[in-house]
Amino acid sequence: MARIDAFLKLGMQQGCSDIHLAVGVPPMLRMFGDLIPIKFRDLRDTELEGYLTEILTPAQAQHFAGGNDIDFSYVSTDGGRFRVNVFRKDTGVGATFRAIPTEIPSIDKLGLPAVVKKLCDYHQGMILVTGSTGSGKSTTLAAMIDLLNTTRKLNIISLEDPIEFVHRSKQSQVIQRELGTHLPTFAEGVRAAMREDPDVILVGEMRDAETISMAMTAAETGHLVLGTLHTTGAVKTIDRIIDALPIEEREQTKSFLSQSLLAVVTQVLVKTADGQGRKAICEVMVMTKAIAKLIQTDQTHQVPSQLQTGREFGMQMLDQALYAAVQAKEIDPDHAYSFATDKRLLSKFVTDTTLLPKLDSPATGGG
Fold first, then answer.
1. How far is Cα 129 from Cα 144, in angstroms, rounded to an integer?
2. In CA terms, which of 17, 64, 78, 146 is 20 to 30 Å from 288?
3. pTM for this predicted structure
4. CA distance 188 to 177
5. In this predicted model, what pLDDT tens digit does every residue of 123-181 receive, in sequence order?
6. Cβ–Cβ < 8 Å for 261, 288
7. Which residues have C-beta within 8 Å of that of residue 180, sequence separation ≥ 6?
């Protein structure tokens, strides 16, 4: 048993989402969004490096020794599965272990909008799940893949960095390939996938122009493409894709988005009202003729108004979703307030008044 497994076991028992190990501080657990140290001494450089060396393959150890960060999946002796990032910082090494549930949660269990299920009925086009790091994108995509795997007879090829949730083939065949282990880049993975008779291609991260371009080609040629971007809204997602590709391809890119982009789901994780968990709250954009025209005429700044009035299509602004969840007492109003764009909507629910903007005191005159 690797010595690091003791920390991972403790973290799993506490129900944390992440275990952080870094030189100069004790191990820390991410509990419902907050980082909490455990009762342990500050980790020393040689000590932590020894812990990590026990779980690295020779190839990983060599790559890390060359000054590179490494990402990989790790299964502890207790059967816990983790996504791991190992890095160096000014005081020594560090590592973050993201706990991956053994069971893939359903779309219903995650409390995602009903339209997410409907999106899984499509046979061609691109669906993007976006948000900042740690916002639950991988879990949402895993739930969508599991629904497809359970209900349709498909060839699903998943390109990941690293493999997180393990999918067992049910109605569909699910092929999971890992960056660095089975493929050199996401772009190469998409290129290869299109020669493997796919119905669905999942691109773990569309992080560069070549990957975005290959994913667009796959979506245009009869495949359903699911992917992620580190963007915080539908408008920023559309603009990011347009800006990522060469300027001479701008018109072609806008044409693709208006015809083949099916939806953008942007999510944040907000503490639940009881403080014992976190819930995904989503902004949803579903492509309509009106939004397609806005993209083609460079008026993406008007997309939010379409989201506000597009409830019949399953669309919603993030602020609308936050407001509804706070009203239903599903999420913590103070935490929700921090994510709101128009904070006035949620200000009346806030319990910690220090979060509210300070009002200038009226001037007082002498008698």
1. 11
2. 146
3. 0.89
4. 12
5. 999 999 999 998 999 999 999 999 999 999 999 999 999 899 999 999 999 999 999 88
6. no
7. 71, 72, 161, 162
Residue of 177, 219, 179 lying closest to 200 (CA atoms): 219
pLDDT digits (tens, 9 = 90+) for 28-79: 999 988 999 999 999 999 999 999 999 999 999 999 999 999 999 999 998 8
Are β-strands 34-37 and 70-75 bridged in parallel, bridged antiparallel, or unpaired? unpaired
| Three-point CA angle 268, 228, 67, nearest 5° | 100
**Could you tell me whether strands 224-229 and 125-130 are parallel, antiparallel, or unpaired per DSSP bridges?**
parallel
HEC letters along the chain: CCCCHHHHHHHHHHCCCEEEEEECCCCEEEECCEEEECCCCCECHHHHHHHHHCCCCHHHHHHHHCCCCEEEEEECCCCCEEEEEEEEECCEEEEEEEEECCCCCCHHHHCCCCHHHHHCCCCCEEEEEECCCCCCHHHHHHHHHHHHHHHCCCEEEEEECCCCCCCCCCCCEEEEEEECCCECCHHHHHHHHCCCCCCEEEECCCCCHHHHHHHHHHHHCCCEEEEEECCCCHHHHHHHHHHHCCHHHHHHHHHHHHHHEEEEEEEEEEEECCCCCEEEEEEEEECCHHHHHHHHCCCHHHHHHHHHHCHHHCCECHHHHHHHHHHCCCECHHHHHHHCCCCHHHHCCCCCHHHCCCCCCCCCCCC
Q: Within 13 A of 80's CA, how many CA atoms are on the CB side?
A: 25
Is the pLDDT at 365 greater than 90? The verdict is no
For 21-33, what is each residue's pLDDT tens digit? 999 999 999 998 8
Tokens found for residue 253: 């890119």
